[in-house]
Amino acid sequence: MFAKLGVFLTMVKFEHTVFALPFAYVAALLADGKVPNAWNLFWITLAMVGGRTTAMGLNRIIDRFIDAQNPRTWNRALPQGLIKVWEAWFFTLIVAAVFELAAYMLSTLAFIISPAILLIFVFYSYTKRFTWLSHFVLGLAIGLAPLSAWIALTNEVTIGAVLLSVAVALWVAGFDIIYACDDVEFDRAIGLHSIPAYFGIETALTISAVIHLAASICFTITGMVLNLGLIYWIGLVVAAYMLYKQHQIISPINLSKINVAFFYLNGTLSMVMFIATALEIGTR
Questions:
Q1: Where are the transmembrane segments (predicted)?
Q2: What's the rounded Cα separation, in Å, for the pair 125 and 63?
C-alpha cells in the first residue's frame, strides 16, 4: 500500500502543489496583516494540499482513457496499470476527506463552500471535451486557493481577496494555454478543445500574453487596495518579469522551452510573491 501511495503521489505530481500553496499563504498573511497562528497555518496547509491532490487525482482518473492515447501522457500510472482505478479512487477520496476536515476545522463558511470547490474540480476535468474555455476553469479552480484561505481566517469575502484570486486565476489560465500548445495536433485529432487547438498556436500565445498582462494589473490593483508597501512592489516587478520572460523564450516555431516556462518560471513566481508578501508583512 505504501508503494501504491508513492505511485499515486507521483501520478498527481505532488510537487506541483508549489503553484497554489504559496498564494494561499499570501492570502493568509494579508487577511489579518500578520502571520497566522500555528493552528490555522497547519489547517490551511492541509486544506491546500488535500484540495490540490484531490483535483489532480480526479483529473487523472477521469482522463485516463485520453491519457492512454496521447503520446505525451501514455506512460502515466493509470494507463500503464501501475495503479488500479479503485486504488486511485481510494487515495483520492482519502485526500478529499482531509480537505473537508481541514475546511471544517478552519471556519463555518470555509466548510460550507468546500463541496462546491470539489464540484469545480470534477467539472474542470470534463471541460476540455466541450469548450476551449477549459483553461479559465482551471484558473478558477486554482484561483480559489487564496480566496479560500482568506475566508478560512476571516469568515468573509473582501475586495482584496477577490482581486488576488482573480489575479491568480488569470496567471494560471495564461500558462495553461502555453502548456496546451504541446498537445495541439493530438487535441485536434480526437476532438478535444483548447485555445491553441481552436485558434492556432500563434494566436494562442498572444491571448496568453494578454491574459498575463491582465493578471499583472490585478496583482497591482490588489497591492493598491490593500495598501501594500515597497517590498511587495519589488516582488511584483520580479514576478511580472517572469511572466514576460516566458513569452520571450517561447514562440510558435520553438516550443522546446515550454517545460521551463511552465514549471520553473511559474513555480518560482509563486514563491517570489509569497516571500515578498511575507517580508512586507513581517517588516510592518
A1: 41-62, 82-99, 105-126, 133-153, 159-180, 192-215, 221-244, 256-279
A2: 7
